[in-house]
Every structure is written in structure tokens, then in C-alpha cells.
Design goal:
alpha+beta, 7 helices, 4 strands, 41% helix, globular, binds guanosine-5'-diphosphate
Length: 137
Amino acid sequence: MEQTLSIIKPDAVSKGVIGKIIDRFEENGLRVAAMKKIKLSSEDAGAFYAVHKERPFFGELVEFMTSGPVVVMVLEGENAVVKNRELMGATNPKEAAKGTIRADFATSIDANAVHGSDSLENAKIEINFFFSGQNIH
Ligand code: GDP
């Protein structure tokens, strides 16, 4: 059993597809172990995406992630990290495989519907960023 962090980004929240996205996880063996709807501050978003600080798109990324509320979740299941990445599809929705969340719900490389941890090590860091152990069930 693994845990991974998923974020439903502001574009998908404002489109009203939270339920449809969670359905993809639940239908594919990923259980919601923790969940909350929050609005990130610029400090939160900047700290969360600190690895991308030097990238040219960092400012746009922080601006987008703070443009509206997000839904943050801990997903649990077998191979949860890789399974979540498969369900999400490629970062750029134009390159995302048919039937993936990004192919179906994302509009652009920044408004790309979901975030998912890219390794088990990062999943642990990202889960700790948003949740304390007693709120993960
Ligand atoms: P992910 O793990 O698939 O989300 O992709 P990355 O970790 O490489 O990038 C993090 C996030 O930064 C992506 O989900 C996008 O929202 C954003 N991003 C990545 N590349 C670009 C880019 O070239 N332009 C813009 N505007 N945003 C980008």
C-alpha cells in the first residue's frame, strides 16, 4: 500500500468536475484517505512548488494555483504514486493519452486539472505539507 498526494487544481474545481475526477480514482482502486478544499496563499504555492523556483513558468504557476480554491487529497492504494500518474496523463493535455484526466478535463499546460506526486519520496513530503497524520484515515 502506498499513499500519494493529489490536488484538483483551480480550473477543474471551477468547472465543477471534482466528483468526476474523484470517481476516476475510486474506480481504479485509489481510496481517498484525506481530503480538504482550500485556497492557497502565494507563500503556500511557492513553497509547495519550490523545486520549480528557477523555471520561467514559476510565476505563472503560483498565480494560477492561487487563482481559486483547490481540493487536496491523500490517495491510498497499491502502487498509488504510479497509478495516479497514469490516471492523470501527461503534463501537457495535448500530449495526454485518451481517457486520462488531463485529456478529458484540462485545457492547457498550466490549467491542467490535477497535480500528483511524482515519486514515493516526494509523496511523503507533499502529504506532510498539507496533512497531519491524525487527519489521514
Ligand atoms: P506534473 O508533475 O505533470 O504536474 O509536471 P511538472 O512537475 O513538470 O510541472 C509542475 C506544473 O507546472 C505542471 O503541472 C504545470 O501546471 C506547470 N508547468 C509545467 N511546465 C510548464 C510550462 O512550460 N509552462 C507553464 N505555464 N506551466 C508549466
